[in-house]
Amino acid sequence: MTADQDKQEGMQEQSFVSHLVELRNRLVIGLGSVFVIFIILMIFPGANALYEWFSAPLTSILPAGTSMISTEPHGPFFVPFKLTGAIAVGFAVPVLLYQIWGFVAPGLYKNEKRIVFPLLLSSTLLFYLGVLFAYYIVFPIIFGFFTATAPEGVAVMTDINSYMSFALKLFLAFGVAFEVPVATVLLAKLGIVSPESMAEKRAYIVVAAFIAGMLMTPPDIFSQTFLALPVWGLFEIGLIFAKRVYPYERDEDKNPVVE
Q1: Parent domain of 234
Q2: Bond prior to 181 in cis (omega within 30° of 0)
Q3: Where does the pLDDT of residue 253 fall: very low under 50, low under 70, confident under 90, or very high at 90 and above?
Q4: What is the largest CA-CA distance in the chain?
């Protein structure tokens, strides 16, 4: 082995170690941000107050004389504790995405950097918008319906852990579903699929939206419909922006478009 080969291997090993160190540092920053936010939320407003806000869409419409219950002895402590952790992760998403961006950005080309950062920003905002849509629009409607249709003699008294699991699943489903415009614009920007081709396949998109609603939400038609309809609408919005970024003038031989 020549001296040049030894030097090259040494540089590669040093580069690999430096990448590991940077990854470790960014993981520490990301996890540290979650921990700091968690501590702040535990102190102010507090885990119990957060759960009261979180459960308000259900507790505000429960019949008089009923309330939420805990079927586990440790539930009143651990459920608000776990919820606070989940909310801390949600608030830390911008920091986590920024750390991911900082780690991968040096390896991207200049034109790729111009795409990735706006996509990270818009996807974060859309995820939060999906969560807010679920909390303020979907929850009052579906919980009001479920409560109103309870059989005679059945008291609606939901377990706090069951409610948290149900609500967090919906938050995640709506947050992910609201990323549809980002996916649409990205496909068009990269020249993978043209906006016209996506528009022609609109019927398949609608069917896929209802299938996604069936798979990503609890097994009731209302949650599925409330997820599928916004996905359809967001797809149409994504098409508008996709037409603006699609590279219509391109070298078809080098960059074929899939129709």
Answers
A1: 179-259
A2: no
A3: very low
A4: 86
